[in-house]
Fold each of these.
Amino acid sequence: MELLLALAIGILAGCGVWLLLASRTFAILLGLALLGHAVNLLILAGGRIGAKAPPLALPGAAGLADPLPQALVLTAIVIGFGMSAFLVALALKGMGEGGSDAVDLPDAPPGREEEP
Amino acid sequence: MTLLLPLLVLLPFLALLLLLLVDRLGRQAVAVAAGATMVAGLGLLAALSPPVLAGDVLVLWQPWLPDWGLDLSFRLDGLGLLFTLLIYGIGALIILYAAYYMPAEDRLTRFLVTLLAFAGGMLGVVLAENLLLMLLFWEVTSLSSFLLIATKWQSHDSRIAARMALAVTGGGGLALLAGILLLGHIAGSFELSVILDRGDLIRQNRLYAPMLVLLLLGAFTKSAQVPFHFWLPNAMAAPTPVSAYLHSATMVKAGVFLLARLYPAVAGTELWFLLVTGTGAVTLLLGAYLALLKHDFKGLLAYSTISHLGLITLLFGLDTPMSAVAGVFHIINHAVFKASLFMVAGVIDKQCGTRDMRRINGLAKYMPVTAALGIVAAGAMAGVPFLNGFLSKEMFFAETVAHPGFTGYGTLVLPAIATLAGILSVAYSARFVHDVFFNGEPVDLPRTPGPPPRVMRLPMEVLVAIVVIVGVAPQLAVGWLLEAAAGAVLGGAPPDFKLAVWHGFNLPLVMSIIALGGGLFYYWSRDRVFTLHERLALDISSPVAFERAYNGATALARAAMAALDRRRLAHQLGLFLGLAVMAGAFAWWSAPATSAGTALAGPLPLSPVDPVSAFAFAVLAIGAVGATLLSAQRLLAILLLGVSGLVVSLAFIRLSAPDLALTQLAVEVATTLLLLLALRFLPQTGPARRGRTARFAGAALAVGAGLGAAAASFAMLTRPFQTVSGYHIANAKPLGGGTNVVNVILVDFRGFDTLGEIAVLAMAALGVHALLEGVRLRAFVPSARSEADRHPIMLRMLMQPLLPLALAMAVYLFLRGHNLPGGGFVAGLIAAVALVLQYMAGGFAFADARVRLDGVALLGAGLLVATLTGAASMAFGFPFLKSAFTYIDAAPLDAIGLASSMVFDAGIFLVVVGTLLMVLTQLGRIAAPDAPPAAEPGRQPDPREPGAHEAPPRAAPAEG
């Protein structure tokens, strides 16, 4: 189970990084979302996975999950949405101003990573 | 009385406001106000001085930032008293002089304001008890002297000179900061009272050497010691009052002040002797040698200043009690005669229109009184008997003769240097007197010189009177001041000394005579020196050399930036992520082989894999990898991303985090909506495809990041841990009044964090709003042909009854959130998504007419509610956001406590709803209204057509 979770985090992170390095806004949006999943799972994994019950302080409950990482991740999820929304707005603003969805300015010196 | 101590420093700063107020009354009023400030400072000093002269130290201590060791503490002892006297006294004379000197077209207010700020900075340096505070004022002097030197900012030379002074003294200030931090670390305090008592401790510390070097760098740059002397002659580009103030009593004296101030704490070692004496001796000789060679008389005075500063430094370096006394004495004498000499120079400059000594000759005829004043002051500079400079020079000679640091022939070294310096200084003083006031007739002057205004001569007369009085009756005139100041420098009673003109016929007197005779002879044969110098010497202090170095450094920085920053997002991110991956890998490999750190798997046993989890993992992998590979097929990619998001929310359930699962589910829906809405306006195909190298590098980075994240997670998951959550679980009910610990943490224990987070969310929404306001884009994907296609009747029929249901669900989740999974975040997301779906199903006009919710108002209301809830607890005298439960535990009040944090949760709810509504409806609004839906029937993604073709009306062509 631990290995499975770790692999899932790794796959999400790897895919997220690959997409982040793209040169167009849409791919970067996807990449950020995937990387966000990876990070959220990683933070949650900080509380380990052996818990038997959700963190509800009910009488007689035992083996509760660690609530602190959960609280952190909860706000991270919501703020992640805010971040995505802002990036979408930036991308659309870029479309409106520059007419292109490339993340780099067209007048940048020709880099090695681009081919016509 | 001590309470008035800070006022002594603050007075010039307070006067800044006064100056701005009287600005409209004209030049004279401003000058009077500034001069009155200086005189008031003198009066205040007189009131404070009796106990100090009796040997006491006044200290006022007020904590400011005690954690940093930075306190508002001031100290008035003999040394501070001496410097305060010089700063205020000479400052008053300078202001009087400047009022007549500065051209009428210059803004006198601006100049005097800067001068007062500078004086305040200097006073802070000399009166600070806390060394960090002193450094603060030290920087004030660096900055304000930059402005003063650039008073004539229209001239290129002034700007370069100011920049040079700032670069040198500012750089020295950085070194000084490091030195002071080390000193404070060693001594355990930044307070001078403590540091000065711990000299032995400081000198034995192993950090003593680097600390001393750093401190001396600060002092030497400020005091223009070789090799940092070059800024001072260039600073002569400033108006003469500035030169007279900065280079006699203040700015450059800050460096030697620092030597004197820290003398009991850091002096007394071999290293101190070598560094300080050596630098002082080289500066003394080089400055004196170069002074003779300057044809510009202000340049001559500048190099003479460097030379005299070297002399003072040398005296402190000699490290005997009497040499310290002589150093302090020479600080006074030099300040007085050099200020008057600069004033004379300013008069001549103004009256003749040039400063070239080859053209200015025979002025004694044209301005006899000024000439007399200048000759007397120059005599003091040369060390002529019955003038003040003679006395301290005599003491200097006596100290070199008797210095215990040398034996055998070595005893001759210091006296030889001293005599040589004496010869040189007599020579340049002779040149100043002979060339300017005698030596025939003036050559080709722009103006016919005449005597200066009567009042302008007054400050010079005062200073020259002091020169003579001190020279004739030293013990009476300054004995008391010197005793107090020297006592403060030595950190105890000064040696018994008596200032007298006549010490009998002894070796120092012989040296003086040699210096006088040799100097005159040297001046007489100066032509040969000039020729030799012009042939051999290289001018290292020229502004050109500095500019070249400066521009070179700038170009280097630009090149380094250009190499690192290629203006490509992928490049930047790649560097950043690559560094992160490498840091992880390095930590991995550098872990000691024997520790548990090297094994990937930790001691915790692995839990078994159940089939459902394995299946979910497979789906997640397919979703993530699929979205990555098919990112060009955007609709599919969004769906696959949604799949992985859903699996993540399932994983949250599996990991006992129901709150997260709910939130993730709702956010997933919102994100999908967001991406779908944005998709229409982004081109299908783009210009940029990654090259092979970039693809390879990106793949390597992605694999590295994935492996690293997986390894780190696995290593973490298999190791035991400790959590602080026990407190939260135990106290959720008793203190927070709820059983859902996650929610209680969010709205109670860490409520302040949550407040910050919803504020961030609100800012993101406002940012989206601001970015997209007015943006109109034409969709790339063709719209549906008819209204019915655009808003399918099925969706519409489904959504309208769903709204109340969804809202009811949101209210339910909100209400139970404190005790069971739910809460403001989830409820807000669900309510907002339900509302947004109305827009999608029914169209904007339809929904706008019915929903009638203002996103901005919702955000504001939410933040207000959340903040007020927090503030309400302050009204009861409790910390911000302290929940009702933390102080009322009586059972009947249970309901009230619950309400308190629920109101906060309602604030969260409102902000979340507002954010989503604003973002998603804003996206819906940006479609250009005139886009004809049928214009591009059945348009297919066309790879030949770059996206820029379909740019909206406002857009400029991308590749233009």
Amino acid sequence: MNFFRRSPYLFKRLCDRLRVWKFSRYEVVFMRVLFAFVIYQTMPLGKPFSTLTQDLFPAINPAISSKEKNESLRPPLPPIVELLPNSSQRMTFDSQPVPNGIAHWVDLTFFSNDRFVALLPWIVIPAILLYASGIGLPITLPLLTFISIGSRTLSNSQGAINHGFQLVSAILLVQTGVILFGVIYRLIKKKHFVDSRQRTIRDYYIYSTILLCVSFYMIAGYIKLIKSDGEWIQNSPYIGIQLVKTDRQNYYTNMDGKHFGKAKVRWASDMLEHPNFTRVFMACGLCLELFAFIALFGRAWCAVTGLMILAFHQLNDSIMGLMFYHNEKIVWIFLVNIPFWIVMLNRRIRKDPALIPLLSDESEDEIEASPA
Amino acid sequence: MSEEIIRNLYILAALGLATAIWFRHPFPFLIAFVSFSLAIGEFYPFSNFPMYSDPDDRENYFVLSAIPDQNNIDQLPEPKPGSAPANTPYYQLDGMICRPLPSYPFTGLTAPTIKKMFKSRMNTFAKKHGTKRKHLNSEQRRQLGEKFLLYIREESQKSTAPRRGELPEKLALLEFWIEPDRINGGFIETPTLVAHLPAQDQN
């Protein structure tokens, strides 16, 4: 009874906790610079940008020459080659045989045009530099969003959907939406957007990015319940067969007989032989996806959920060969947010009076207000 | 997903968006975005991430193969014991020797991409003919497979990936089905020939 009497109060507290957080300037700068780096890595600039690091610093080649060396920082970080400032390969598609997204209405094959590919770095690199420095976001963000969505839509219109770049494009789209909202608000109201809790557009555009990251994992969880008619956990031991398929596909990609293509595929038979253990194990991953929104309860929840998602990705990589390195980098940048925790720890060591309980929503405001 | 579920997801997305705007709270926007993405499916950059969402007791993959000259069969390495792909340099299917190729150095496409591409072509073809992909007969699959091999040959010319060589003149597309071996444990992998080039009517 006590619970029901208190429920409106609890509901109000929960709603307050799930509101937009305040972000310090240093956090926003770190996030923007690091995300600009990820955007650069996903841009289809081709040569010389796609092999820039190896061409400029050949000494790096021994460190990425084998799978073992390349993954020497893993866990917790992605492979070394994924951390280098190299762009993606250029687009080479001159048709859209299976149109996806905006390719239903727009011919995007100009992304493969030699002259456009030659022009692309002159547009992308200045735009990324401006984005990283936070200058001209209402112009640079729509530009980067269009290039990211357009080029990857063309790639996905070849009949093979690749989900590796989706989060980067979706974040750019959402950030564009928030920034343009701020511009329109300023034009109409003749003042900068500030909500009733003193949150600005800067807070909204970082918070919306975190919200989007969380939503991507929730989507992947809820689709499992919908498509399997709620029987996903029951059928999860059959993932063992998927492991064999993934191993065979990895083998036939490069015929790497050292790592793939063997008679016994690690974990595959075990999954079918120990179905209940597999169900418990898989249910943990599914629950993480379904309840990823707990990241929005506060900074500490966000960091812990981020670390759990990273562990989930690394397990997926080592067991199933599923690699989502850009997603991992984004989780590090926006959910784990190491600069915030370094500053927090530094202030705790210096016994800063601004230090208040980690889970309090007000903590970030006070930290920002306190002298550096 | 049924039409009814999709319609309900769109309604939920609209309600979530309205609630987010009305109460000026971000959380209903999360519900709206999740529902909208689930409903719209694959529409870049939106997706409902259907991979591994409905585990089944059968799974398949596709392999690009060369068809060596029948006179040169003796030059191929002997298969080692065991049915693993790494121990099987070639398969004899429909009276033809098929020697699997590493897809990436020859075409710039990974094996999962080859599967996704061929699957989407089968889906489009099946939808056009008012049927489902799994109900396509071997003749329809052969025709689609031949067109697909021609497309791959064309794409391989444009690939910027590090190349090991040109695709051979005679090509084949193999399909492998994996099923659990309920008697002996482990798995059974069964290969079949989908299509080959030069096409059957060109032979």
